[in-house]
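S1.2 Input.
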Amino acid sequence: MRILLALLLLVSAAPASAQSAIRATPGYVRVRFDTSAGPIIVALDVKRAPATSRNFLAYVDDGRFDGTVFYRSARRKAEPSLGFVQGGIRTDARRILPPFPHERTDRTGVKHVDGAISMARRPEPNSAGGNFVLLVGAMPSMDAKGDFPGYAAFGRVVGGMATVKRILAKPTGGGSDAMKGQMILDPVRIVRARRLDGTPKPTGGPKPWLIDIKR
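S1.3 Output.
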């Protein structure tokens, strides 16, 4: 009885972020990334950002993120402990899914707060696909405002922020233009990504990226 009570006290005393990583929350679907730097769990806001979440879960359920990497660490010059890390399929056309509508943060209400997950994209809207960023520290400059469409935030990290910070601290170099000096020299491997809630809904499409692996 005393042991059970002690365990209950430990759970109740755990930070809210840790508890949310343990149990499901209505309106959210959790995804776990197993990486070479440690695990990361994100909760996708499927209610407020349905199109972006649906796209992301299609990549997860198809296994399109398996074997990809976190390849970019964008640290703030004034505060190197803050910034974002970027991962996903990069330019691998074998893994990419069709485009989907851009969801502005001023319409969804999902902001670029500390720990947010957001879609990377080209300058034009509706160009996000299989690349995403995880924030360390809030970045309101990524939110939509007026004519600026911003980026599509659609959830946040609920477990493994220590892993995200380890990736952010990785040595960087190379790159060009906006990514100059930000490419992780030893990219962090995404071993696999799996949803923790609900039933997987793979697209059923071909998986050409697996051909080389099977050989």
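S1.4 Remarks. The CA atoms of residues 53 and 205 lie 19 Å apart.
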